[in-house]
Amino acid sequence: MKSHAIRLAGPHEVCLMLGGVCRQRLNQLAAKPGFPPPLITLEMGRVWLAPEVEAWIAAHPNPRAARNRPT
User: Fold this and answer.
1) What's the pTM value of the predicted model, to 2 decimals?
2) In terms of domain of life, where is this protein from (predicted)?
3) Is the pLDDT score of 69 beyond 70?
4) Does residue 61 register a pLDDT over 70?
């Protein structure tokens, strides 16, 4: 039988996926159009589907540099 595990990521994991950015930078990126919305927001914070964040990262390979680009 095949397992269909859902991969989730909280703020700490997403910060690491983004190359070790701080939570403030994650909040900036998450507020931009195109960043995947959280699957759910719990008392402990937002929770994303990890594959959606990975797809966003693949399309935006340098999120740290993106902060200096005009929007």
Assistant:
1) 0.81
2) Bacteria
3) no
4) yes
β-strand 8-9 against 40-42: which pairing, if any? unpaired
Q: Are 57 and 63 in contact (CB under 8 A)?
A: yes
Q: How many other CB atoms are there within 10 angstroms of residue 39's CB atom? A: 15
Q: Return the amino acid letter for 61.
A: P
Per-residue DSSP letter, 20: S
* Structure-block tokens of residue 64: 């740290």
Question: How many CB atoms within 10 Å of residue 34?
Answer: 8
d(CA 46, CA 21): 16
Question: Strand 8-9 to strand 45-49: parallel, antiparallel, or no bridges (unpaired)?
Answer: antiparallel
